[in-house]
Amino acid sequence: MKRLSRYRRHRAAGPVLLLFALFSVGTTFSMASASNRESVTPLARSAAIDEGREIFLKGCSSCHGLNAQGSVVAPSLIGVGAASVDFQVGTGRMPMADMSVQASRKPPVYNAEQVAALASYVSSLAPGPAIPTDSLLNYERDGSTAAGGELFRTNCAMCHNFAGQGGALSQGKYAPTLMGVEPKHIYEAMVTGPQSMPVFSDKTITPAEKLSIIKWIKAAEAEPALGGASLGRVGPVTEGLLIWTLGLGLLIGVAVWLATKAR
Fold first, then answer.
1. Which pLDDT score, from 0 to 100, does residue 52 have?
2. Angstrom distance (rounded) from CA 66 to CA 76
C-alpha cells in the first residue's frame, strides 16, 4: 500500500490516469458505434428498400428525379415520409400522367406490397411522418363521434362540405369526398397535407382528436337517408335547383296542356 501510495503522489500519475481514461472512453465509444452501424446497415439496405428503389426508378424518377430531389414538374420527396407515399400511391393518385391537374383518387397502380416497399425507400432518404399502425387507428375505441363532428365542422367543413361530400375550391381545384376512404388514408392526409390541404400537426389536432374526426366521418358515411334522396348532401343549392327545375317544368307543361285544350 505504501508503494502504491508513493506512485499515486508521483507527478506523472495525473497525466497517465487522464490518458487511460481517454483511451477507455474512446474504446467504448468505438465499440458502441460499430455495434450501431452493424444494426442500422442491414435495415437501411433491406430488401424492401431495394425493391422500393427499383419501383421508384421505373415509375417515379422521370418526374421526381433519380434521387427524389424533385424537378420543375414534381416536388422533392426527401423528408415527406412513408405516410405521404402510402397516401398518394395507395389511393391511386400517384403515379399520374399529367402533373398540371389535381390528382384524383383512382384504383392504385401498385399492390400493397409494392406500396409498402416504395414507402420504405422514400422514408429511408430522410425522416418524415410514418404510416399509422392498426393499434393507432382504433377510432371505434378511442374516438368520439360528437367531438369529431365539432372538430370536422371547425377545421374541415369549409372545403369538404359539412357532410364530407367534397366541394369546389379556387383555381379549378376541389376538395374530394371523404366517403369510402380508408381510415388510414384519412389519418395520413391530416398529417401530410396533400395538395391544397393544410398539415394538421399533433399540436393543432391531437392524435385522439384525429381519431374522433375519422369516427364521425365513418358515422356520416353509414347514416341512412331517412328523408329520401340525399341529392349528394351538398346543401340547399341542389335542392332548390331541383325544385325550380321540376316546378317550372311542371308549370310549363300545365300551361301547354291548357293552351292545347283551349283550341
1. 94
2. 11
